[in-house]
Amino acid sequence: MRRRTLAAAVVVAVAFIFYAPTIHDYFTQDDFGVVGLFSQRSLANFPRWFVSPWTEDIWGYVPDEIRPFPAASYVMTAWFGAAAPEPNHLLNIAMHAANGVLVMWIAEAAAGLSLVPAAFAGVVFVLLPIQAESVAWVTGRVDSLPTFFYFASFLLYVRSDDAPGSVRLQADYWWSVALFFAALFSKQNTITMAPALMVFDWLVARRRIELSWRWLRPYVPYVLLTIGFLALRYALFHEVAREGILNAQRVREFLSDSSRHLVRLVAGGPGVRHWMWKDTAWIALPAAVIAFRPGRWRTAIYFAVVWMVLGMAPILMSGYYSPRHMYLASLGWALTLAITIEAAYELNKHRLMRVAAAVAATVVAVTYAIQLHGVVGEWNRFAAISHAAVTQIEREAASDPAGTLIIAGVPRLSWAFSVPYSVRPPFTPTDVTTRVSVISDSSDHCCNAILWEEYTRTRLREWHGRSDRPPVVALFWNPQTQRMTRVSDADDPQLRTLAGLLLEAKNREALDGILRGLLTDYVALR
Fold this sequence. Notes:
The protein is mostly helical. It folds into two domains: 2-347, no CATH class; 388-523, no CATH class.
């Protein structure tokens, strides 16, 4: 028991060590809208979130997302400071560490691994570079939290009475059901639990499939909860699982995204290229090692294929590419590597082979650790730019004349979907937009293109129509160097002329293009 506690402590320590640099990182991207909204809500809203979209209409539309548990988590972190990023980051890291420990326990209970390979699986899970978005980004908790409930539910199911055909009345079983309920109401991608349990029982636990109530009974609560959840979605949104976006083009995009996801999961990197034939070596080597251990192939197929497929399938309905969508599925790769290491260790009792297996495990962990360090550094940089942008615009609002037009050129990875929330309370003491007008290109605006155009043109007309001719200030942050460039019409009168040209843009695309060009081709080059 002491060895297992120590192994769990190692997994937790690795998670905190590598993500500690993010604890003081400022908010980025969607954080401003989400954190700002829930800083104004209380847990009294919790029952209502089961039957209404959790982010309301802050993005300019009503999303089809029922997520009361993530909503509650943001309310609770706001108790420690509405504009304090530290409580949010600490919770994110804690969730990631807990998930790493759950991976270790699943490796023992479901994959039958001994303690050291199981702990290796947990360490790999927390070190995978693809996980950084789910941990370093405050809003990334919308994937780590449902995954926590999903992992815990799966683990407790496996640990419950495994006698074939029995009704699992133990506390573990009913806690598993309860945690699955929490998973469903944290994110809709967790609807795969029932097939995950059925295939596990058949493939790994070797329980024969029977067309009988006795065989079906253990799965009934999971199936009923899934059906009830999907029926609720249909009642609220008139769709079960975003099937309205499903067409041939979306399937092609899904296959393309999946290819990039697999490269990013297995080999690391930025996820810009697709799977290539040379990448099969990553899969071929573990497969070759496991092939010499007949007792491992069922477990390996389950976690390397079934778990990964079920974890990635909901991406088909996501509609966009994001590495955090692989958070739940990544357990499959972590366990595949752990199964391979243990199989290699057992393949030959010769000491040299055991040393080789240990060296291979170390190389894998160190490689992922080095890559993760670089990715976390990128999040640090963009968080620093985000904080600098909020601080500078707040300073401009305090020192510039009322009605000043501020054109903010903040990198998308710092401020996507953030304007105008990033310059309003709780992130600034007062609503900056009541004194000055802040505009950006469409990628930094909170809402869809139509609302962005209306917002931007309104601010431009208000500025241009004032009789006191307030100034215009353009700010641009270099995404690599973090250097800020500031230009005002007092420095260069041409800026006022260029800003005025924005009003002449014939359509939304032209307005966005002129605005981007002003920032990147004029301000940034000064």
